[in-house]
Amino acid sequence: MSEEIVLLERDGPVAIVTMNRPDALNALSRALRAEIVRVFTELSKDDTVRAAVLTGSGRAFTAGVDLKEAGQTGFALGADGGEIDLHKGLSAFPWPIIGAINGFAITGGFELALMCDVLLASEDAKFADTHARVGIMPGWGLSQKLSRMIGTSRAKELSFTGNFLDAETASDWGLVNRVYKADELVPAAIKMGHEMASCDATLLRNYKKVIDDGFASTFGDGMRMEVKRSAEHAASVSAESVEEARKAVTERGRGLQS
Questions:
Q1: Superfamily for the 6-197 domain
Q2: d(CA 108, CA 179)
Q3: Domain coordinates of the chain in residue numbers?
Q4: How far apart are CA 193 and CA 190, in angstroms?
Q5: Ranges of residues in the chain whose predicted pLDDT is under 70
Q6: pTM for this one?
Q7: Which of 46, 65, 145, 190 is geometrically suited to a Cys-Cys bond with 108, CB 3.0 to 4.6 A?
């Protein structure tokens, strides 16, 4: 029996999705891309899931698209569509995705990392955008997302040189939220997943959507959208429920201080 190319584990409401082609540095073959989309599609239908962790086995998160295969099937990855549209597949997942970047995240792998909602990195993580060096254009959002996360000048530096960005610098630049020792990375990501999953489920789903929809619009349109959705949500809650939730938040804060 061949080994599964995507491993799925559960820790309560947190799903841990692991790309499992370590000998190929988790290169994103069509089969691996299709399986990632399939897994996240199934998880989106699971009423018990509230967050996901995405990581890789071995020494890479993913080294990017399987270039040998792409040489035969084509490089227009943003348009390869259907059941293997990675960006569409992950965007449709309604809950937070925490990217646990355990090693190399290169080119298409960098783009996959940017599809996550929050990035945590191990000390071994390294990011690189080598599109310009290998002669292909990004098609999964890197040219637009990276500059919005770390600034246009820094994004151009990475994309125009193809140089590697280490984990600590990625943290300093605001690309990743925190850096951990290798064996602490996934447990930390799972812990964060549980913290997110402990929030009100409706709010968690809707909050992710309003941030993502606002990110894709102008600032003015985003502000108007927030006001509209805030009013719509306010109509569904009571003063009593908000007060009970406030008490729970206060107790949680006291617990963190002790």
A1: 2-enoyl-CoA Hydratase; Chain A, domain 1 (3.90.226.10)
A2: 22
A3: 6-197, 201-257
A4: 5
A5: 1-2, 67-83, 238-258
A6: 0.87
A7: 65
